[in-house]
Amino acid sequence: MNLKTSFGMATALALIMAGGATAETITIATVNNGDMIRMQGLTDDFTAKTGHEVEWVTLEENVLRQRVTQDIATRGGQFDIMTIGMYETPIWGRQDWLVSLDDLPADYDIDDILPAMRGGLSVDGTLYAAPFYGESSMIMYRTDLMEAAGLEMPRAPTWDFVADAARKMTDRDNEIFGICLRGKAGWGENMAFLTATSNAFGARWFDENWNPQFDSPQWKETLTFYLDLMNDAGPPGASTNGFNENLSLFQQGRCGMWIDATVAASFVTNPNDSTVADKVGFALAPDTGLGKRGNWLWAWALAIPAGTQKVDAAKEFIQWATSKEYLELVAANEGWANVPPGSRTSLYENPEYQKVPFAQITLDSINSADPTNPTVDPVPYVGVQFAAIPEFAGIATLVGQEFAAALAGQQTVEEALEKAQALTRDEMEAAGYL
Description:
By secondary structure, the protein is an alpha/beta fold. It has helices at about 10-20, 35-40, 45-50, 60-75, 90-95, 115-120, 145-150, 160-170, 190-200, 215-235, 245-250, 265-270, 310-320, 325-335, 345-350, 350-355, 360-370, 390-405, 415-430, and strands at about 25-30, 55-60, 80-85, 120-125, 125, 130-135, 135-140, 175-180, 255-260, 280-285, 300-305.
């Protein structure tokens, strides 16, 4: 691995001076996604420049959320940096559970962070987490299977087109499934996908008075459409498949289409990992003609919990890992297609990155997601694939279990929605919303 790419002498010296003579060992909790694994492989560059060592706690997404939430709420001090997202950051920032990042040095260029990312990771203009990568969601599809089905993917397809194409591309005898979608229970797993999808069908979590809406026709249409599609064209055992499981299926050539995080584009087009790397096309997330697409907005970001005793060293790591220079470091070692996307404006202005086939559609997907106006009908919450209230994570995890059970054939659409409605109402009444 070549780590000789230019980090910038001024930046390196600033990091060393900021850390003084004391080398620390910092502990970072992160998710087991490909970009984070790659970051761990490049950490020697950070250590060489600052003297600080890094210990990694790498966890599956649902487990990470549980561990960091427990630690932050109790000020347990297990972690010096946490990988969190746009849901947690504003809530925890308002609670003074996170350290402000507004004092990062000028050459970090905080104004270069994409506005959608900076806004979602700030409270009243104060940045509380720095985006390691940003994402929306989009369609990744097999161009060869689409052609064999006699179809041409539009840049902005409807859900009806996607469903028809998925059924036509399915070849169960050869273990090729027309579509792979999240089914694993979790507020950030199946409910992230289904909530974003429901927006396109005109559904919403709550009306303007915080009444749950799972008894609405729009939610019945959303869940029925999803279950029928997965039963007809999805892989077996889909109720246990999340991001990583579907990524593996797609890379093995077993998915005709996959609708998921834009960040996956670099993994499905990497010939070292993907058997279909040269047969992948991209399209915007589908709509139903009601004015909203089923794409979300998210950033996996690095934040410093207020309980740490190593704030200075933690800030130095965040400065390193989310800098323009880090993107150049990855590009020098892995190529521009593999740099963490969706965080900085300058990346999308870089002529080399503009050559990456999924760069523009990723940016278009990010820019089209509107967390302040996510649904067809008005709602009292902010968030595309979540409602930015503290109670959401717990409620959506329970709802996700009911929807996963329906996907597994253990209950009907009606039963799942009835339970979702009842448990959501109970939790919202207990929390004082109703």
